[in-house]
Amino acid sequence: MRRFYLLFLLLVPMVFVKAQGEQYELVENINYYDTLVESQENYQKERCKLDVYYPKDMTKVPVVVWFHGGGLEGGEKHIPEGLKEKGVLVVTVNYRLHPKVKHPVYIEDAAAAVAWTFKNIDKYNGDKNKIFVTGHSAGGYLASMVGMDKNYLSKYNIDANQIAGLIPFSGHTITHFTIRKERGIPGTQAVIDKYAPLYHVRKDAPPMLLITGNREMEMLGRYEETAYFYRMMKVVGHLDVELMELDGYGHNMVYPAIPLLLNFVKEKSQE
């Protein structure tokens, strides 16, 4: 585990830079489901969309799938400013929200979006062998669940181990508090069941970079549960997992974490 201090973070270079004359294009509101659930048809059509932001003149571009935060109850797809014009392709995803749906629909939507990416990203100059899944808070939780519980992607005949890397930003590793609320469990009562990334620790999972804010500034013990996940991944023999704690930042730590994500993507894309 590494702790990063504010001064260091300000000096971290953005590792992907815009090439001279390189042009980026944004394609918005692509439906990522082939079929609709009749009872959810209108809401599914509204929410289950993604945007693709890609460099037009590059090929085999590393792909970053970004899930927004919002406690599984709010939020909208967006591209974090630090990911624009950095030589990566960004897929940013909306998913259905509580209370209009309940678990595991959020995770199923996230998996459907990742599956769409595997099957279609070559049309946008992306490399399906370099798909990295990430997000902040609830989005980090979804990234971890899609990558750790192989059942969600197997529905689409995709092995979760094909993901090039998982980079959850301050995401639950225990069962998400909104899912606990749906089940009548207090937010202060920790649960580790099949809706917890911790439940699915395994040696052969994709490479992982876990990033949280400072342990004294984070929300709801987020650092500590992430540190336990990190430790258990080590215990089961996973050889490529790292935990970074960002001193000077609490839960809203997306900006300083983006350079770390980009460095990780560059490193793994070159292996």
TrEMBL record:
Q: Which InterPro entries match?
A: AB_hydrolase_fold, BD-FAE-like_dom, GDXG_lipolytic_enzyme
What range does the record give for the signal peptide?
Answer: 1-19
Identify the residues that the record assigns to the BD-FAE-like domain, covering every copy: 50-215
The molecular function terms of the Gene Ontology recorded here are: hydrolase activity
Q: Which UniProt keywords apply?
A: Hydrolase, Signal
Q: What is this protein called?
A: Alpha/beta hydrolase
